[in-house]
Design brief:
- The protein is built from 15 helices and 15 strands.
- With about 450 residues, the chain is α/β, with parallel strands linked by helices.
- The strands form three sheets. Strands 3-2-1-6-8-9-7 form a seven-stranded mixed beta sheet, sandwiched between helices.
- The model has no long low-confidence stretch (mean pLDDT about 90).
């Protein structure tokens, strides 16, 4: 069995976390392929090494001294090496790096990538595994896009069969130019490695025990999610839930490899399994999770007899496309429809967009609503089950919360409602309560029992 274990920044923050990682790796002989991020925050108010390296790059660009920044970064690594008694020449290597950085000899990408590079060098010695530089196996095109085909070839060619430690977040072109993945791209690196090695499981170790069914800042003690499908994860991640970089899903999803999200500080916790299994289990919750985002804008367009006119929606959408604005939802009626977009995408252009729609599309009226929040209730167990939407809407109604928009995906795994921004948190709590008995989320067996109790009894 092959497991890819990726440890995020919070999991490699200091020597104590290095010790936890060695215990985790030694507990399972299948954990031989390790991916690490740069050192993260050690405590509240601390800085991530990656953020500090970006600051160094900015200081170099504007010819401002970065000696103090580099000293702080270096000390992070020196402390780990000293406390663990590592022999890797981190002081010499970091001093050489610092001199080149101050001289402006690195691109921003290469400079920033050294956070992962040094972390992986130390981790490799600590775990007794070879170091494999991501620049040698994670292949990029010159435009910054990943070459998955060549990456697969390089990992097969240069990867060490018995295991290795690889830095995440970066790779390189054929000419050796370092390129970065998106922020949080270490998750993607682990996913890529899992696919290329045809792993049985991709473990993503972080500082939380998997996904929760709601934001704990909004809902008190929300239930952990034990199992979730890739489709559900995409819905929850897109609408605001953040544990795993959402782009990390695609490589392993395509390969049919499950993901386990685990807690480095609590390795005994089961965490969350993400897989493509969509079967129904009676002791699983009806809903998987509730999440949402504030600050959406809805542009309502009205025109009499619009249903008889061909192309009006396309013409309106072409205006948004011209302003490079991504459309989130298009709820519609007989003579009206709304275009829902993220407020940040139109903050400097909304009235120009409205003016262009008025001049280019023959509509009767346009109204802009800018205090909209969207809440998504997600669950594969909602598919084809009567009464779920009614239960959700009734919960909002009983709280006096007006629903301003309703949408549902064609796969029926989510129900999205729009409410006023001021009602956002209250609405999430109301929906959660509607599918909870106070201690845990209602399960399929609870729904089945309720349905049986509701059936009229036939008198003998």
């Amino acid at each position: 069995m092959i497991k890819i274990a990726k440890f995020g920044g919070s999991s490699v923050a200091d020597a104590d976390h290095f010790r936890k990682i060695r215990s985790i790796v030694e507990a399972d002989p299948a954990r031989r392929f390790i991916v690490v991020s740069a050192c993260g925050r050690r405590f509240s108010g601390d800085a991530k090494v990656t953020d500090l390296l970006y600051l160094v790059a900015a200081h170099v660009r504007y010819r401002v001294s970065c000696d103090d920044l580099l000293a702080d970064i270096g000390q992070r690594y020196f402390d780990i090496a000293d406390e663990l008694g590592l022999s890797y020449p981190i002081r010499e290597e970091f001093a050489a790096f610092a001199e080149k950085a101050k001289a402006g000899l690195f691109s921003t990408a290469e400079l920033v990538s050294r956070g992962e590079y040094f972390t992986a060098q130390l981790m490799a010695e600590w775990l007794g595994l070879p170091f494999l530089d991501a620049a040698d196996v994670v292949a990029f095109h010159h435009d910054g896009t990943l070459s998955m085909r060549r990456t697969h070839e390089l990992i097969q060619e240069r990867g060490i069969p018995g295991g290795f430690v690889m830095p995440g977040f970066y790779g390189a072109t054929r000419e050796g130019q370092v390129k970065l993945l998106d922020r949080g791209g270490g998750d993607i690196s682990g996913s890529i490695l899992a696919k290329c090695l045809d792993a049985d499981l991709y473990e993503n170790w972080t500082d939380v025990s998997g996904f929760l069914s709601a934001d704990p800042h909004i809902v008190e003690n929300p239930q952990p999610i034990s199992r979730i499908t890739y489709a559900e994860l995409r819905e929850l991640s897109y609408m605001g839930a953040s544990v795993l970089h959402e782009e990390a899903v695609f490589p392993v999803m395509e390969a049919g490899i499950p993901i386990a999200v685990r807690n480095t500080n609590r390795p005994e916790d089961a965490g969350t399994i993400i897989s493509d299994r969509e079967d129904y289990v009676e002791d699983e919750p009806i809903i998987t999770g509730i999440t949402g985002k504030r600050n959406f804008v809805a542009v309502h367009v009205q025109k009499d007899h619009m249903s008889n006119e061909v192309g009006i929606v396309r013409r309106v959408l072409s205006v948004f496309e011209r302003y490079r604005v991504s459309v989130e939802h298009i709820p519609s009626g007989i003579d009206s429809f709304a275009v829902v977009v993220q407020g940040a995408d139109v903050k400097d252009a909304i009235w120009s967009i409205v003016a262009d729609i008025k001049s280019e599309v023959n509509v009767d009226s346009i109204k802009v609503v800018d205090d909209l929040a969207l809440i998504s209730t997600v669950g594969r167990n909602m598919i084809g089950r009567p009464g779920i939407s009614g239960q959700l809407f009734a919960a909002l109604g009983s709280e006096g919360i007006s629903i301003r928009m309703i949408a549902q995906g064609s796969d029926e795994i989510n129900i999205i409602v729009g409410v006023r921004d001021v009602d956002f948190e209250r609405a999430i709590r109301a929906i959660y309560r509607a599918f909870s008995d106070g201690d845990h989320l209602l399960e399929l067996k609870d729904l089945k029992k309720a349905e049986e109790d509701a059936r009229p009894r036939v008198e003998e």
